[in-house]
Design brief:
Length: 141
């Protein structure tokens, strides 16, 4: 990532191999962090609707809503009663396959609440390579 201090409005430029953030002169770390988190949120909001729709059709479930938030210990959560999933903002840093793994994981909770044999059988049915994606996700933690 490259930071450029400027008198112009904050902007983010995405190239194929880096992120360039144009930030105000003298901005503090908290302002820069907030700006970066907003970039992550925008990126996820751009890709999540299509991914969620794709996997709802595959799994034959439907959520009413999804949200993105910073979470300290989880990559996602599912509220079965509200049919809502929450996804961790940090997923924006992960490969698309890993994001899909988390989506599938949370959607499968609509079919099975607990992490039991039935849950993992569903995971293997819908996303046979899920264990590889879980390993990839957890190796950075």
């Amino acid at each position: 990532m490259e930071l450029i201090e400027s008198t112009e409005r904050p902007k983010i430029y995405l190239t194929t191999n880096r992120i360039i953030m144009q930030i105000p002169f003298g901005s503090v770390i908290e302002q820069r962090e907030k700006f970066l988190f907003e970039l992550y949120r925008v990126q996820l909001k751009r890709i999540l609707p299509d991914l969620i729709s794709k996997w709802e059709k595959v799994i034959n479930v439907k959520i009413d809503d999804y949200g993105i938030k910073r979470m300290k210990t989880k990559w996602g959560t599912c509220n079965r009663n509200a049919k809502r999933i929450w996804l961790n903002l940090e997923l924006a840093k992960k490969p698309i396959e890993v994001i899909e793994y988390i989506i599938v994981h949370e959607l499968v909770h609509l079919l099975e609440r607990y992490h039991n044999k039935r849950f993992y059988d569903f995971m293997s049915l819908f996303l046979p390579g899920w264990k590889q994606f879980k390993e990839e996700l957890n190796k950075y933690n």
